Amino acid sequence: MAASDPMNIPCDERIALVIDGANLRAAARTLGFDIDFSKLSEVFQAEGRLIRAYYHAAVPDDEEFSPIRPRLLDWLEYNGFNLVKKPARAFVDSMGNRKVKRGPGR
């Protein structure tokens, strides 16, 4: 391990990056910044052997469009991330707000 290694991961260590898209997106929005997934991937590749990168996302099953689908999910898939899609159902609550309910197992 190098003294400048911020995560203290041995350079020959195999790494799997698993991202909970909904929670990461909500945290980033709350903190007021965007995530650069390209740099995130580069950081983990520099720390060890990044063997897999997973991004878990809830995608509405009744419609093809999702606010994150056109840009982020397509970009992640194109750049080597494995997408794990969970069906989500959209509905309107009693106050008239559109909500999304994630599928079973959540």
Short structural description:
With 106 residues, the protein is α/β, with parallel strands linked by helices. It is 30% helix and 33% strand.
Q: Which strands sit side by side, in order, in the main sheet?
A: 1-2-3-4
Structural class: alpha/beta
| Radius of gyration, in angstroms, nearest whole number | 17 Å
How many strand units?
4
Question: Can you describe what's shown?
Answer:
The model has no long low-confidence stretch (mean pLDDT 80). The protein contains three helices and four strands; from the N terminus they run βααβαββ. The chain starts with 13 loop residues before the first strand and ends with a strand. It is α/β, with parallel strands linked by helices and 106 residues long. A four-stranded mixed β-sheet has the order 1-2-3-4. The protein has helices spanning 21-31, 37-47, 69-78; strands at 14-20, 49-60, 82-92, 98-102.
Secondary-structure blueprint of this entry?
Blueprint: E1 14-20, H1 21-31, H2 37-47, E2 49-60, H3 69-78, E3 82-92, E4 98-102
Parallel strand pairs: 1-2, 2-3
Antiparallel strand pairs: 3-4
Essential attributes:
106 residues; single chain; alpha/beta; 3 helices
